[in-house]
Structures are given as C-alpha cells and as structure tokens.
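Researcher: I'd like a structural prediction for the single chain below. Treat it as a standalone chain; there are no partners to consider.
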Amino acid sequence: RTDLRIPPGPDVTFSPDYFAARDRFRSAAARLVWAVHTHPIAARGPGDEELTLDAAVSSPAGREPLLVTSSGVHGVEGPFGSAVQVAALEEWGRTGPPAGVRCVFLHAVNPFGFAHRRRFDEGNVDLNRNFLPAGEKFAGGSPTYAALDPVLNPRRPPSPWDWFEPRAVAAILRYGYEPIKQAVAGGQYEYPNGLFFGGHGPSASQLILREHFPGWLSDALAVAHIDFHTGLGRWATYKLLAEVAFSPTAVARVERWFGRGVYEPSEPRGVAYRTRGGFGHWCPEAADGRDYLFLVAEFGTYPILRVLAGLRAENQAHHWGRPADPGTRRAKARLLELFCPASPRWRARVREQGVTLIRQAVAGLRGGAGS
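Model: Treating it as a single chain, here is the predicted structure.
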C-alpha cells in the first residue's frame, strides 16, 4: 500500500492524512455544537475505508448572512484547506463562534482525491471542470490540447528520464504562454485518462451538492463563499479569484472586505485561467437569485511548469503504474509537496492568511452584503 500520509512537521494543524483531517474537522465542529452531515461516496479509500463529503453547519437555518467555506475540490489540495477550516473552528472553540453569521463548512469536496493524493476524483474527473450548467453537454476541448495530448498524457508509467519541461517550453514558444495555459488547463471532455478532464456526466460530489445545497443555504439572502486552493502564484502568497465576471460594485466590495491588490479575475494573463464547468460558476447559479459572492482563495507554491509536470507524472502513475511501485510512491510524494509544501514557514503563513480571510468575510457579512 502506498504511504499517503503527510510527512510529520511542527505544524500540527496539518493533519497527516484524509482520515485524520476528517476526524479533526468533525471533532472541532462538534465542540461548537454544529450539526455535522456526512455524505458517503461509492469509491473507497486506500485501505477500503469509507470516504465522505462532510458539511458542518452552525446555527439553525434562518435569514442571517451565510459564510460558506470549501476545501478539497482538488483532492491533493485538501490538506491545506482542511487545516484552515480546522484552525478557524478551533479558534472559535476558544473565543466563541461569530454572532450574527451562519456558517456552512464543506470538507473534502473530493474525498477520493484527498485520500488517494490525487487532484482528480475516482473517475479521473477534475471537479472544477465538472459543474456544467444544466443542459450543457459534457463534450469538447481545445484543438491545442488535442495536439499536445501525447506530451501531456503519455501511456506509460512515469520515469526519472522524462524531458517534459523542455518539451513544454518548446510548446510555449510555438503557441504562446497565455494561449497554451488556457488551452491546457481550461478543461477538456475528450480524454478520460487525461489531465483536466471534466467528465462525461455529473460526478458523485456534484450529485451530493446538488441535492443538499439548497438546504444548506436555507433562507439566507446574502452569502460569501471562500473556496480554498493551492498551486498557482507566488510562494506563500494568495490571490482572490473570481470565476465569473464581477461588476465594479462587486469588485469594490471585495476590496473593502479583504483589501486592495488581492482580487484578480480568472484570466490567462494573470495567476489563473478561465475554466469551463467551474464550482464558482455553479454555486451562484444554484443560489437562486441570492446575493452570492464566490471567491477562490488561491495560494502559491511552486512554478507552474513544475506543478504541471508533477500532475502529469502522478496521472501517469495512476493509470499506467501500480500502487506499490517506487515510481508511484515518488509521484504521490512529489504531488503532495507541490500542493502542500512541507516547509513549516509556508504552512504557518498560509494557514494564518486563510484564517484571516475567514475573519474578514465574517466582518464583511456582519456589515451588510452591500457594505
């Protein structure tokens, strides 16, 4: 069995694996007397354990403004998002939960990826490409992605003698950095074993969210949602990304709540790129007319080509290697480091920044959605 535990370090907020993170999340929510809803998926853990998407819900449903946080949409990024959620819950366990704001914390939106150290779910689906609007077909992709498929998705186990990065640089010189970033990472529906695959239908996680999301929102008229991610941007810094076009009024609100210079639209010329089927598109649409502010909190780790190379190697290992192979173990360990660096300074800094974002969102909601 592949060792999927996070290497030990001085920051105990970062749980060693999915199961420890889930236990700590549930315990912290229970100490606040929050309701914890567990939603199993059919896929199993590395040792055939049950995997669940968990939701911790604070006070009884009402019209109070609502704070939503979510972790692990991309499974291997879950250790960071979970650490921030747990740190906030444990802080409120000492100081008392925020008055006047209801909370819904979604833990491990992609439990399979979290438990198995994958970005993708049990169907190789990138959940942030799977939330297509009703009636839109799970089909299509960029011609540039199709041209690069042999480079992005080789049909063999990973090898230490793989010249991916020079080949990637050559592709960038041919197509241009921003166009190739958008074409590769924006989402595709034609290569089921490939990177950034959006699926051929709704994922298990999407079906759970579709069923329960309206109840979690209840009668709240104003919602602020922070979805925690890692892997893009400068080391131990963050940007707040919008997956949908924000009006000038919405941008001004973000800057009042969180400060100037941290907001950025999801465009290829910036930290991120435009995605099809994004969670941040689906949530406001599912909110049925509510004032819904959805922000991706994206925390930087390593350079983008190194991250892409790590995603590619783990995907090769998953499809073409065996769990016990040394190459698979190396690919899993490398992917974890790329999305959740072992550096104590990185972990301490991003955890505190994440908790600060939660505090700022609470203060903004208390001041009124339009404040």
